């Protein structure tokens, strides 16, 4: 496609000379800045403009300012024409966005060479942008595929727990919703603003269902026991944390290559039974040495367990559950997270009540 060049000069002689020299391009001309802007408004897809700075009606600087202000004109490259003693004007024009300058009286051969160079550069830039757009589209497609694969894998793993009647699908849905509500609230606080980015919150919510994935390795006689566990059985049950971490790390040969969401899932599975005072398991971590995903999951998991009916206990009501959460601040739970949890407790309780009602209806039918 032939490039389009706009020549803007109040000298009809200069316009004629330059037009003749550029016979193989698509040429349009204007005798002043105002006419130039009218032409550009009608056709903003001009490749290059040769612009005289000294014109009686809307000078070249005003034209450059107008082009700079309008994003639709950003593709126009401008070569300014100045007199030999106008060094300050050359600098000013370049600062306003011109890509080059040539002095009058015109050196036609030099002007032709510069025009050809800038048009080739623009063509190369256009091709690079097109290549980048294609690459971005490919990356976006691959990213969508990876996210879909990740989500399918997570759902499949969690499905193993649901098939064994370890957890209900409602537990998975509730804990994900609560994780999102809690993280979004904490994100507003200065202490978490830089940590809980939108991307990280999405990882936390997505990997929340994997917190108990290690329970697939626990024998049914313990996992499904309709009564409280003995000390020996509880010792075996606690191994689900280690099993979960091992399952998530199984195909990773170099820990430096662990994908971010897998790292988050490992932290959730491996540390959600740690306690803030150091009395939890499996490592007896305390305070902020417990990874943030584990500290978040600890309060969410305990809350949902208390609010839910189990084979060995009835469901707690919301008041009793919130009282327990409050009492365990600084003991089982991170006090800062407890504070955030209590600030959005009404929204969290609403999530629980919605799904409890659904479960009751399911049982009725």
Strand residues, percent: 5-15%
Taken in chain order, the helices and strands follow as EHEHEHEHEHHHHHHHHHHHH
Structural class designation: alpha/beta
CATH architecture type of the largest domain: Orthogonal Bundle
Characterization of this structure:
- This protein starts with a strand and ends with a helix.
- 59% of the residues lie in helices and 7% in strands.
- With 365 residues, the chain is α/β, with parallel strands linked by helices.
- A five-stranded parallel β-sheet has the order 2-1-3-4-5, sandwiched between helices.
- Helix 6 (169-187) packs across helix 13 and helix 13 runs antiparallel to helix 14.
- The protein has helices at residues 12-21, 33-42, 60-69, 87-95, 108-163, 169-187, 190-193, 198-207, 220-223, 231-237, 240-249, 260-271, 292-307, 318-327, 335-343, 345-364; strands spanning 4-8, 26-30, 48-52, 77-83, 100-104.
- It has two domains: 4-133, Rossmann fold (3-Layer(aba) Sandwich); 164-364, Hypothetical protein af1432.
- Residues 146-357 form the HD-GYP domain.
């Amino acid at each position: 496609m032939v490039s389009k060049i706009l020549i803007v000069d109040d000298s009809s002689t200069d316009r004629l000379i330059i037009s003749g020299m550029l016979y193989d391009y698509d040429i349009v001309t204007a005798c002043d800045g105002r006419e130039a802007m009218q032409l550009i408004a009608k056709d903003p897809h001009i490749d290059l403009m040769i612009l005289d700075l000294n014109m009686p009606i809307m000078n070249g600087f005003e034209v450059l300012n107008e082009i700079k202000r309008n994003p639709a004109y950003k593709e126009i490259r401008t070569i300014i024409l100045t007199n030999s003693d106008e060094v300050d004007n050359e600098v000013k024009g370049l600062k306003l966005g011109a890509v080059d300058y040539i002095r009058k009286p015109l050196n036609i051969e030099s002007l032709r060479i510069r025009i050809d160079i800038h048009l080739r550069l623009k063509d190369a830039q256009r091709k690079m942008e097109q290549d980048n757009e294609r690459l971005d589209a490919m990356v976006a497609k691959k990213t969508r595929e990876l996210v879909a694969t990740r989500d399918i894998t997570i759902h499949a793993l969690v499905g193993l727990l649901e098939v064994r009647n370890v957890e209900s699908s409602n537990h998975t849905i509730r804990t994900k919703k609560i994780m999102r509500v809690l993280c979004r609230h904490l994100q507003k606080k200065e202490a978490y603003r830089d940590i809980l980015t939108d991307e990280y919150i999405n990882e936390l919510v997505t990997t929340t269902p994997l917190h108990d994935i290690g329970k697939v390795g626990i024998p049914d006689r313990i996992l499904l026991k309709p009564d409280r566990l003995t000390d020996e059985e509880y010792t075996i049950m606690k191994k689900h944390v280690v099993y979960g971490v091992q399952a998530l790390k199984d195909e990773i040969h170099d820990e430096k290559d662990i994908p971010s969401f897998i790292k988050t899932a490992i932290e959730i599975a491996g540390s959600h039974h740690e306690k803030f005072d150091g009395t939890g398991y499996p490592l007896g971590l305390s305070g902020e040495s417990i990874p943030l995903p584990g500290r978040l999951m600890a309060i969410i998991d305990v809350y949902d367990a208390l609010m839910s009916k189990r084979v060995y206990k009835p469901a707690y009501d919301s008041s009793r559950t919130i009282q327990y959460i409050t009492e365990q601040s600084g003991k089982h739970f991170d006090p800062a997270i407890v504070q955030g949890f209590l600030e959005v407790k009404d929204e969290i309780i609403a999530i629980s009540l919605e799904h409890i009602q659904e479960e009751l209806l399911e049982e009725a039918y």
